[in-house]
Amino acid sequence: MRNFGASRGLGPLRMAPWWRGPALLLRRGGVVIALVAAALVATLPAAAAVPFLSSSRSATLHHQISAACQWSSGVTVTSYLVSPGDSNGSPSAGPGPQGVTALVARRTGLATATARTVPQLGGAETTLVATIAGPTQPAAGPHPFPDADNYPVQLVSRDGFQDHIQVLHGPRGTGAWVSDAYAGTLHLKVGDQLHLYGGVTPGGAVSSVTMPVAAIYRDLRQEPDQPWWCDLLPIYRGPQGNRPTPVVIFTDQPSFLDALPNLFTNATHTISFPLANPDLDDDQAGDAVVGIARLRTALFGPPDSGFSPDPPNHSVVGSLLPQFTARAELVRRSMAPAVVPVAVAGVLVGLLIVGAAAAFWVQRRRRELTLLSAHGVGARALALKAVVESLPALVVGAVAGWSGAWALVRWAGPDPVLSGEAAPWAALGAAGTLLAALLTVAVVAGVACRSLTDQVRSRHHRVLRALPYELVLLAATVPVWRVLGDQRVTGDPSNGLGTAVHVPGRLLVVPIMVVAGLTTLAARLAVWYLRRRGRLRSPRTPAAFLGWRRVGRQAVMVAVLAGATSVPIALATYGATVTGSVHATIADEARLHLGSDVVFTLGRQVPIPDSLADRATEVLRLDGAIIGGTQTDLLGVDPGTFARAAYLDSRIDGKSLDELMPPIRAPRTGGPQKVVASALTPAGVREAAWRGDAVLGGTVDVVPTSVLPAQQAGYPTALVPKAALGDDAQYAVAQLWVRGDPVEIQRAARAANLPITQVAVAADRYANSQWEPLTYTFDYLTALSLLTGLVTLVGLLLYLESQAPSHRRAYVLLRRMGLRARSHRRAMFGELALPLVAGLIGGVAVSTALSEVLGGGFDVDPDVLPNAVVTMPYLPIGLIAAAVAVITVGAAEYAQRRIGRANPSEVLRDTI
Amino acid sequence: MTRSDRPHDRPAVRCREVRRTYQLAGSEVNALRGVDLDLAPGTFTALVGPSGSGKSTLLRLLACVDRPDSGSIMIDGTEAATLSRRGRLRLRRRTLGFMFQAPADNLLDYLTVRQHLHLAAQLRGVPDGRDREDELLELLGLADRADRLPRQLSGGEQQRVGIAFASFGSPALLMADEPTGQLDHGSVDAVLDAFLAMAEAGVAVVAATHDPAVARRAHQTVRMRDGVVEEYGRG
Questions:
Q1: Which chain A residues contact residue B122 at CB under 8 A?
Q2: Pick from A143, A102, A398, A135: which is nearest to A269 by CA?
Q3: Which positions, given as ranges, span the membrane (chain A) (predicted)?
Q4: A70, A626, A842, B115: which is deepest, by most CB within 10 A?
Q5: H-helix segments, A116-220
Q6: What is the ipTM of this complex?
Q7: The pTM is what?
Q8: Mind listing the pLDDT tens digit for each residue in B132-191?
């Protein structure tokens, strides 16, 4: 007899039950669906993690690029054009017109040729800007501006400028293009001659050139800013606080270069290469960054290139792209500690479903497996059969999961552009999960098959099965908590990239471990209870009796289903609590910092418009007052409306704003004006002054409190009735504080034509890129919540499918014994409701307990008040509960209808 | 198709003082209380007795899917009572054949009769070949059914294919649990003929049964009651 072992290695693959396995599975549609769905659920989070991180990185990159000036995102090469003057850059001995023209051509040619080797850069745009010393004037007219130095004129030449201004008159020939405002001031019209004044000649005279007015265009300040002009915004808008009207005269490049040497002034020569595709992915950005570094070397290398960082060229190669790329990578890196554990949890939940599907496979193939086992086929060979049979379904599920992850991230993720690494990593994640799923199938099927015909149980085996391994997982949470630390910020604020704020990884990893451990422990106890005590219960109604008996008989399945329901619900609820609490905390911190949801700074005091009257209050802000020797910002408020429209978290010191108002609401009775001041301002009667002069009558009676809204510069604030400011109110900055939806508020403010000089929105504090990781993490957790529903549904379908044959047989028999359909429907409902509702309650309870214990850590900016605001996600919990209720009722009804259609003659012959 | 490679003077099965107790719902059930049993090669034994007498438990122990609490079970010279899981598996694969009550439970519905024999040869690790298959099919009266699937066979034919599947490669012991329980009278005779044919080929056949027809045609009957062998008899 040959020593052939059916259970050894891959030998069984030569036998028909193995090699025909993939085809055999197709005869079990329910199992196929279960395996495909389970593999999909397991693969999706694994395949989505890296693409999601890549998507977040792309979103950060694109957010920065879109927020920046288009010329800065690519490359700008800026150099001096030195006019006749000394060699230090001041006008003395520069090249003549031909020399300047040749230099510009040489630079542009070299830069353009070199930039062609840099990926992602678009065509060159050349900009020449010369600041002329004094104003221009009509050739025949008097000099209109005696204080010439205060009215700089910018002579600008840029390729294609004609296409980005609105021409009002002309053009006629070449020459100066002046704005309508300037033309109006000087009474210029097209064709007039215009003097342009420059620097001082070596002979001591003021240099000038004459140029015809070629066109008159609409002043750029009269039009919405175009992105094309973004780098010249300071030139035509003027620096902030610069009252004189800046004068911008455009001209074509030859005219500019002809005029420049005669104006005895220097110019900046900027060659810009914008990004050809602002939606580039990270790989392309990385290639571009490398190319930009190469470009710098190439330009500065040749001695006659016209570029050098030294005088007289002072060339600078600038690009924000390296910084953007580095920051995007910082954001991606900061998100990993949150996203990876969530993905791992998702995969584990999915593998739990795969295990249930494998158990389902064993159940549906029990007859064949029993026969093979009776013929001496071991558990390993049967596990191999399970793997072979389920492989196609799992592959299909993994591919579907991978495709779904890819599509979901691109469709619903932060950005549809993914880097090249995303695809292989997603495939690797899917492949790894597929292997894990196959291993799970093998283990579950192998263990289940061991009991088919060999029911010998050793004491050793029983002890091993009874060990509560989950306690190890629970115990491990303590060292993991300590090792992971409390890092909330990634990045170094001093390196120019800024920081990225995120949820500490341990706030996600440890809860996942706790949820997994507690759920397993609860499931173990539930199985023990249902097996030991469940059968002893004797409910009075037939429905309860039947349901309870079935639950007791299927104790393991019930516990698995309850666990499969509980884990994702717990994780989703906890995730929603964390993210919601972090969001709420930041929002409250922002509101407290700002004073309200939206704060308008007004050019002058105006009545509050009716559309905002019910949620706005006027505040007169007088910063820099001195009360009792301490610098304090005075807030002149309306005691009647301030508490309603301003924000203060009463948990900080137990007092609401309304409770702080009485001292300043009370009419003044002759004593010092009462003010409510935050900590640091000394309490009691104190002197009050502003810029050396007494305010509020010279003395105030300070009523202390710990914190007040709008403590923005680190100084304490003091609330005072605005009427008490008296004449000093004219020095105060008028503000309108409004609570509510920022978008709607700003729309109402615009409609009311308020003289707004500045708008501050609390939500913007957590909408900027520093907080992007948080925002993206919210998205990811939301996606996981959606997965929760899928997991629950798949688990339930598995359960129903596995129970269908025995339910059908039992139903036929019970009907003959007089059981009514309604009672059986109730029994079905109870059988399904018990695990699902237990899972729901358990999941919510665990997440609530975790939130209570860990809630203090939900403040990612602990240095700023208020501390963590823990908000329970009642809406998601309610939706999940509703979904569970609907699924329970629907599934019970569906199962009852299927069972009710059973043909008694067929059912009684049914042998699974 | 004889068991010429095994000594005929050695019993196929020798049980001594075999005891088995189950723990059920907090109480003990003494299923076997010291069973002694000898089965010689080439004999067809009917294991009879009322429900709860211990027939199925004894069959399970002989089939090596369970282990006795005490006692000895020698199967073809191997002590099965103390074998490891792997040892029991090897014994099942090489030395034992087992048949379930329902004919359909003994066959794979996607294999033809001949494919079953081919699979049996692969499982036992014995050389197969069309001649050996034809010989067995001829012996069991299934020669013209070789290329049919189980659903194309009658219940009796299915059960005979099950016998062929379980006994291909000449196991020392072929066990059957109520092998005629789901068959009509006509089919029962054919199945019993098949058992006798296998016994003639040297296989020890034992069938737990309530069917008097089986007991009548068996070489010997073993009557069990309350977990012990009450009586040996001739068929």
A1: 4, 6, 14-15
A2: A102
A3: 338-362, 382-402, 422-445, 466-484, 504-530, 555-576, 780-800, 832-854, 874-895
A4: A842
A5: 180-186
A6: 0.90
A7: 0.74
A8: 888 888 888 888 888 899 888 888 888 889 988 888 887 889 999 888 877 777 788 888
